[in-house]
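Narrative of activities, Objective 1.

The group set out to show that a structural description can be obtained from nothing but a protein's sequence at a throughput compatible with the screening campaign. Below is one input-output pair from the validation batch, recorded exactly as produced.
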Amino acid sequence: MNVDKIRENFPHIDDMIYLGAAGSAPFNLVNYNAVMECWNRRRYGSTLGGTDHAWFSEKDPLAREEGAKLIGASPDELCIISRVVQGLNLIKDTLGYNEPWKKGDNVVMTDQAYPSTGHTLLALKRHGVELRVSKHRDGRVMREDMEKAVDENTRLVVINRTSVGSGFTYDVKQVCEIAHEKGTYVLDDAVQTIGSKVVDLHDDDVDFMVTGSYKWQCGPPEAGFLYVKKSLCEELLPCFWSYINVDKGPGITGFDKFPFGAADHDSVKTYDYPFPKTAQRFEQGTTATDEIWAWHAVLKWLNGLGKENIEKRNMRLGIYLSEELEGIGCTVKTPWNPEPDALNTHRHALTMYTTGSDELDRKTTAQLRGRPIKQVKGPTMKYQAGYGGVRVSPHFYNTEEEIDLFVAYLKKLMS
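Output recorded for this entry:
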């Protein structure tokens, strides 16, 4: 992997030491150039279609194809969304639309979940649904605890594939085995994983997955995918109905689906058709065209680099960072190796450490931006249910030299 070539796409990182991919990626020229191509085509004579309307853009199916390659799925299983929380709500509401939530049902999450998970599921309490929160043990989600939480009345298990603060990463296949044995679904929030680690949704047997593009995928801020397993695309009706999504049969696509000029056009009868047996049935209208252009370009770029190569590079950076931090007396709280009784102890480049003192953690983290010449940006304090420390998140565009400079300055601040 040619790191120097990759860094050419991130012009601002030469002016700082940026270690914050878990928050958002730095400005990326792959995004910018695609957006400018979209708008320039529109400015210089494009007709309604590829640049004016995302739904008719040739980049829409191409983005699905590239996304499917990246996550081990089929393009027909991908629904385009704008934000992760939109996908979470879509699944919650879709399940309730097909079988109303009721007293006696329960959903399972863990106390290491991101706030959008818990807040979205809180809405179910008004239906009498029990929200079961499995407690961590020193950051770890134990298999036996998950098995106790999930029962025959569990309708959904929600996980964050990688913890936002600590980098603890699930063996998702094990979670799916536990859930499916009880006949329940798994919703996987993989926004902190896709773009950094290899993900294969078919191999994991995940039912639903949500992700956004602006973190490890280095994409635009308002693009994302909701993955729905093929069998569920055929089984579940959408909770959000859009005439754009109806299936009028083979060969009837694009503007042919909307015969506004026909004498017999009717706002009800013309669209009284079933939905396609794909994840597109769940889409909520259209998305921003330039975002789709940018995301397609980034997904194609990532696939060109190779997800295995990206993971290998990031794992190397994460281990190097951890070793250097421990070398100056810090304690790394991110797991080094998978532990047999825990579900979420796979490693990630996202690394959490502590100096040994919460006060010193906060003080030094606040002072990092004061580093002369090149500020250190990205490290931040993160706590989930009492487990926390300082989060640092290097990505494939970072170098070992940048990590050396960060650790050396941190050592100075600690003294």
